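Fold it.
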Amino acid sequence: MILDMFNLKGKVAVVTGANTGLGQGMCVALAQAGAKVAGVARRSCAETAKLVEANGGEFLEVIADLSSVEPVERILNETVDKFGRADILVNNAGIIIREDAIDYREEDWDKVIMTNQKVVFFLCQAFARQYIKQGEGGKIVNVASMLSYQGGIRVPAYTASKSAILGLTRALANEWAKYNINVNAIAPGYMATNNTQQLRSDEQRSGEILERIPASRWGTPEDMMGAVVFLSSAAAEYVNGFTIAVDGGWLAR
């Protein structure tokens, strides 16, 4: 049956940025689909753990600061030590620093590129090596952005990093599809998360954004659930290097 292809029972998923927002929602979705979940964040994932367990799932908290590549191997090792394997990696963690490009500081540029781009690559690499070792393939889902396609305003480093994620997703798919590793991405639109609090608090800017979205609303963590389960499942076995927009129609406008 087709619905069986979306079943993640027996799979182990790792989600970065798992303590809140989109990451939390994707943890819950993967657990609902049957996966065991390791949630990675700088701060406590207690709320996420409670939600996962309330949905019948098993949760591992991995406290790690993704402002450097230092915890990459530990994240993988703690997951494998707990669950015996790893099958799905969701690179959701990211930061945004808003400033006019003319005034953007090098230290802020480096912070954004490190977390949003460099750490993502080395997590992909570490998990791909584990998938090859296990010999059964695996799934990598990167979280891109509308700014993978557009320039944005006052977010030069974020736009650069998310444009890189779109390209990196394609590049890794080209190399790793032969190992039955599917590398794809999700590009969320304007979501009601911590990263957009400043925009949503600006009545004029928020209104301008909502006018452009055909669905006429901000997205929610629940809107990401179907896409992440699909790309993490056998239903996406022949989907490679593609970025799915979950944007209420923003790009279509």
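Residues 9 and 34 are 4 Å apart (CA to CA).
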